[in-house]
Structures are given as structure tokens and as C-alpha cells.
Amino acid sequence: MRVLVLGGxxxxxxxxxxxxxxxxxxxxxxxxxNPGTAGIAENVEVAADDPGAVADLADARGIxxxxxxxxxxxxxxxxxxxxxxxxxxxxxxxxxxRLEGSKAWMKExxxxxxxxxxxHRTFGAGDEAAALAFLETLxxxxxxxxxxxxxxxxxxxxxxxxxxxxAVRSYLSGDAFGxxxxxxVIEEGLTGPELSLLxxxxxxxxxxxxxxxxQDFKRIGDGDAGPNTGGMGAYSPVPLxxxxxxxxxxxxxxxxTLRELAGRGIDYGGVLYAGLMxxxxxxxxxxxxxxxxxxECEVVVPRxxxxxxxxxxxxxxxxxxxxxxxxxxxxxxxxxxxEGYPASPRTGDVITGVAEADAEPGVFVFHxxxxxxxxxxxTAGGRVLTVSALGPTVAEARSRAYAAADRIAWxxxxxxxxxxxxx
Length: 423
Ligand code: AMP
Ligand code: GLY
Known about the structure:
Bound molecules: adenosine monophosphate, glycine
Largest sheet: 5 strands, parallel
CATH architecture of the largest domain: 2-Layer Sandwich
Strand content: 25-35%
Strand order of the largest sheet: 3-2-1-4-5
């Protein structure tokens, strides 16, 4: 198969690598890709968010399968557009991608499907007074979320009523996130460890299969301090999560959600990313995403021993999925971010040590936000590199990942030092 990976971050680098290693795949293209994918695939220019442009590229290059990384092209309908040309596309159609495109709609689907989730209410432009009043009714702490896409940064979790009020005002006015925040969801704060369960779906609610569980570290600072980010590190497997727990989530949450969607005429394909909190009263669904998690993908895909190309093609074609198998080795990834991330990342700093880190056994350095300028690799985004390492235990994988990350430097590099610590 000739496969096009859409996107240009660490997740897409990990997907491109997994696909390049798949016996079913003869050629990998990345649109637009990044300097890391250039080593294993052909990078091609494409307006990834424009479904028509992607479908044209797939036609022009005779692509058999498009694997979509980020959410925006999915929300814009890239799977619909590519499928309409008779080609396979891995991901949900736009109607299904709305699960991530609108948190208010996602909550409505969860409630209709009877899936346990945080108590919540949705507010729109004229509702500021009602939203502020609802905050007062919440015990403990406050969670305010943009309805629309905000690159993982549209969620405020705080114990401060004032901070929650400020979020409500700045979201509803459009000051903070433009239209994405003019509708918002306020919900009760939940506590407990988080779990990311990526589920591969083939359009049949009974045909969906989970990938290995992963845990992600969302806050910028050690000890979960500071603002939310897209994710600062991850590990898999998660010793806290056994097969019975995964089976329960599939039975009580994912299955009912897929059936609810099917009832609304949406045959969901691709990855359904269930973001759960394991609360004292059982698992509750925080959110669904409609794609691989980033950086969860960078710890799950390196552990996959099943042919990734075959898995994605079966899901996209609506065929029964092949058996999904993983190495018993653990994988840990540490995100290296630029100074100022997440608020205002500085870019253009020269990066050193990537080749040395990548040469370590069992280590993969995935590029997330890099660029080549006159032969130098420089920072080009908030999350710059994701350093993944395999090892016989989470602890061993962790020390390999940090040893490799220690070889990489640039001015202002920030990273957490406690990813997968004590697991
Ligand atoms: P979301 O984008 O909805 O997953 O939210 C991003 C992150 O905010 C989650 O991974 C949690 O760490 C946190 N979060 C979201 N909703 C809640 C909640 N109801 N209670 C506590 N933390 C939450
Ligand atoms: N790591 C969180 C996400 O991909 O949304």
C-alpha cells in the first residue's frame, strides 16, 4: 500500500515510522511532515486542513490509504472527501469528528448513551450571568472548557472561583479563544488518576478494539503544576489498569457511545480516544478525542507488533480488525518544549544532540516542532521533540528516555523531570 500520513507533529512522526515498518506498506508520504519524517518518508506540501486539497493529492499520487493525525482536518471532513474518491481514509467522518469539535455535543452524546461523566452545563454568548451563577453551585473546584477546538489549551481547572469567573468572561467574550470559546461547558471537578484509552473503530460498534492503555501528563510543571498543555510526556502500559478495567470501559462507555452514534446515522471509524478519570466512584469520561493522542501515540505505536498499515486499512475499509498485539516492553516518552510554552513559545533556537540521542538502543526521537534552517535544526513550535524509549519495565524505559533526552539541548529547553516517576 501507498500511505499518506496527514500532519506534521510527533504523533505523525511515530505513525509514519510505524507504517514504514509495516510489511503491508510499500511507501509512506507525509503531508506536510517534518524534518524527522523526511528521514523515513517523502514529505509533500499540502494544505492539510483543506479536505479537497488532500483528496486531490491522494488522487495525484495514487494513495491507497490516508491516515489522519490531527483533529482539524477530521472536523473539516477530510475522511468524507477522500472516501468520496474511492480511497481509504483512517479517521471518523466529519459528523463523528464533532465529538471533539464540540464539547457541548460530546456531552449530549455521553448523556444520551448513559456514559458516566462529570455533571455539567453548557452556556452561550448571552449567558454570562447564568454561567457565573452556576459556578457558585459547584462544590470543591471548577472546570471551564471551550466548546470548540483550542489545541488542548481551552480547559481551566482551578480551585479559585475568581480564576474560574475570569475564564468564563474571557471565553464568552471571544477574547481568549475567539469563536471556540463563545460557547463553553462548565463542569464539576473530578479527582483520580487519568487514563487514555485509544480505541480502533471500523464503523461497527461491536468491531471496535482497544489499544494498550497509556497515561499522559498534561500540566507543564513537575508535580502537575502550572497550566495545561497538549501533553508533556506519557507511558504505556499502565500498571494501574488491568484487562478487567479496559473491558469495563469498552462495555460501559465506548460501546454505548458507538451505538448512540450509529443510531444517529454515524458509523464511527478511526481512533476514538477515551480520556477517562478513575474516580473513587468508578471511571468517568472526561472527553473524547477523535484521533490518536499526542504524546500517547509516541508510546503506544512503538509497542505495537501488529502491522499498523493493515490495522488502519481494515478499520478504514470497515473490515474486521486484525488481532492487536503489543510487545511486553514498556515505553516512556518525554516531551522537550521550547521556552515560554504553552503561553508564548519562543522559536528559532538551534537544537543539538538529536542524532546522538536517537542512536541509543531502543530510543526514538520524534520531531514535533522543528525546522531546518541553513542546515541547522531549529525549534519551530511549543512542543519540539518527543523522546521515546522502550525497556523491560516502565522504570527502565524511563531511565533510557531521560538518558537520551539529556543529550539534547537548546536555549530555554523545558521538560518535566517526573514523567512516569514511581510507576
Ligand atoms: P479535556 O480536554 O476535556 O480532556 O481536559 C483536559 C484536562 O483537564 C484533562 O485531561 C484533565 O486533566 C483536566 N480535566 C478536564 N475535565 C476535568 C474535570 N471534570 N475534573 C478534573 N479535571 C478535569
Ligand atoms: N495528549 C492529549 C491529547 O492528545 O489530546
